[in-house]
Amino acid sequence: MTGLYLHIPFCRRKCPYCDFNSYAGMEAQIPAYLEALGREMALRAAEADPVDTVYVGGGTPTLLGGERLARLLGAVGEAFQVAPEAEATVEANPGTVDADLLRALRAAGCNRLSVGVQSFDDDVLRFLGRIHTAEEAGQAVALAREAGFENLSLDLIHSVPGQHLESWRRTLEQARDLGVEHVSAYALTVEPGTPLAERMAAGEAEPVADEASLEMMRLAHEVLGRSGLARYEISNFAQPGRECRHNLACWRGGEYLGLGAGAHSFAGGIRWANVAAPGAYVEMLAAGHLPVAWAERLSRERRAEEALLLALRTTEGAPVSRLEAPIGRDCGQARRNTRELVEAGLLEVAAGRLRLTEAGVAVANDVFLRLMS
């Protein structure tokens, strides 16, 4: 089975920390873009495997409105062989949803909503440049429940300059009290070239200290864990059976097809990406061409390395046998690195699988670098 991703690159306002392929003030291009997206579906559908997850991300997909989103989901069902019990996720911004939109989405087959709350602290939301308030975020969740959504996920961000631990605790507790089935809790990353990076470089904002960031990560595990949301990936928590099937398949090395400007795909050992600019994307499809910007065939060694590291992001971990895979380096060294990380309490081996420990989760990138050295 294949995961299908559709990218909607339009936003009402670009957040200063965001380096995703998204654009503000381009709503006039939406009709032409959706027409191009339909053309890409038609070109790709014949060669695609059956689809068991659909994920509409952005940007802000809900900027399209309920009618357009419903038509888009309908087009997916017509073009692809979608499994009857497929997971269908749409990302939503609290500042761009209302009852009618959410009802239209649910009626069109969307059965999972990912709400970009980020924080329930209005000061943090203002710093992040979000267009909604904490109150509006809570209202969006309530409206989604009224529309019939039984699988809700919230995106939250911690380690924001000026954010203190109690603010983060209140955000986590608010998410807990809303009774959602899934939470993604990410540390803020300052990406080069973003307005936030420029502010940080100018000394207008101070980064959160590493120890404070780790404490926020530990607090998320504590508060969400007590509410029945178990960690299943470094930054993701879910009720049993409510893990994001789309992302979990990617972490397990599954294949996925990405449609839309800047979308990435992986199938048959080949990774490729579409052109990023919406205008160029529309023009290429209008001319009957697939909008591919680049493609690469991954070597057997690189695929093995990536499969190992992706699996280690999850709590189920990776089979120890993957250390014996031909990953372009001495397997004896891999075993020695693993043994050192186990002795340091950062990795553990149980039931034939290699996993990060709680201490390892906090410094996962360092563990991965050491494992691959």
CATH architecture of the largest domain: Alpha-Beta Barrel
Radius of gyration: 21 Å
Indicate how many domains the architecture comprises.
2
Q: What is the CATH third-level topology name of the largest domain?
A: TIM Barrel
How much strand content do the residues show?
A: 15-25%
Q: Would you state the CATH class of the largest domain?
A: Alpha Beta
The strands making up the biggest β-sheet line up spatially as: 9-10-8-7-6-5-4-1-11
Tell me the number of helical segments per DSSP (H or I, 4 or more residues long). 14
Q: How many β-strand runs?
A: 17
Average pLDDT = 94
Sheet with most strands: 9 strands, mixed
CATH-defined superfamily of the largest domain: Aldolase class I
Please give the alpha-carbon distance between the first and last residues.
Answer: 34 Å
**Helix content, binned percent:** 40-55%
Please tell me what the overall shape is: globular
Low-confidence stretches are none
- Which class best fits the helix and strand makeup? alpha/beta
Description:
There is one protein chain. With 373 residues, this protein is of the alpha/beta class. The protein has 2 domains: 2-251, TIM Barrel (Alpha-Beta Barrel); 300-372, Arc Repressor Mutant, subunit A, CATH 1.10.10. The chain is built from 14 helices and 17 strands. It has a 9-stranded mixed beta sheet, with helices on both faces. A 3-stranded antiparallel beta sheet has the order 12-13-14, with no helix packed on it. Strand 4, helix 2 (66-79) and strand 5 (82-92) form a beta-alpha-beta unit. Helix 12 (331-343) packs antiparallel against helix 14. The longest helix is centred in the middle third of the chain and has 17 residues, at 210-226.
